[in-house]
Structures are given as structure tokens and as C-alpha cells.
Write a structure and sequence with these properties.
Order of helices and strands: HHHEEHH
Largest sheet: 2 strands, antiparallel
Structural class: mainly alpha
Number of strands: 2
Radius of gyration: 13 Å
Strand order of the largest sheet: 1-2
Shape: globular
Number of helices: 5
Distance between the termini: 22 Å
Strand content: 5-15%
Helix content: 55-70%
Length: about 100
């Protein structure tokens, strides 16, 4: 059975990207993203699927690469203008903004 999207984590991840970049750190590193996901009990496969979704929705600038059946290179690049708007909205309104956006 396929897992449903974890909207709460996606919301938290976008806010994490926003906080990371506005903290003067630029875009998050692969290590930072994987560590953040692991703390939230998100597998690399789930993280790859989420980053792919965010890239296709044009909220982040980079897509994870895929090797055979697994993802590699979890550096999401930067938030796009739309990604920044959504992350700011999520920080104030919660997941309901994300469900509408996706």
C-alpha cells in the first residue's frame, strides 16, 4: 500500500527551507535536509518523493536525482518566489494553505 503524503512534514520542510535561507545560510545542504527529515522519521525515499513534488510544483529550484529505484542528491536548491510565498503563508496559517497550493 502506498503511503499518503505527509502534509504536516511538507509544511514543516518548506518552513525549514525558508528559515535556513533567511538565517543567512543560503540554501540547505544535503546533510541538513536529510538530518531534518530523519528527526521527523521521514525516509530518504519519502524525502525524495516530496522534493520531486515540490520541484514539479515549482516551489524549489532543484530536483533530487534518481539512481535505479532510489533518490540521491537531496539538495533542494533555493525556494522559488512562489515557494517563499507559500512557506511564509504556512508559517502563519498552517497546513491548510499547503493543501490548497498542491
Amino acid at each position: 500500500m502506498d503511503k499518503l503524503l505527509n502534509y504536516s512534514f511538507i509544511s514543516d520542510l518548506l518552513i525549514f527551507f525558508l528559515d535556513y535561507s533567511t538565517g543567512g545560510n543560503g540554501s540547505p545542504t544535503e546533510r541538513a535536509v536529510i538530518s531534518y527529515a530523519a528527526k521527523k522519521n521521514i525516509t530518504k525515499q519519502e524525502l525524495g518523493n516530496i522534493e520531486l513534488l515540490l520541484f514539479q510544483a515549482k516551489f524549489i529550484t532543484r530536483c533530487p536525482s534518481r539512481v535505479e529505484d532510489r533518490f540521491v542528491n537531496f539538495n533542494p536548491g533555493a525556494l522559488t518566489t512562489e515557494g517563499i510565498k507559500l512557506a511564509r503563508k504556512l508559517a502563519n496559517d498552517g497546513c491548510s494553505s499547503l493543501i490548497i497550493a498542491l
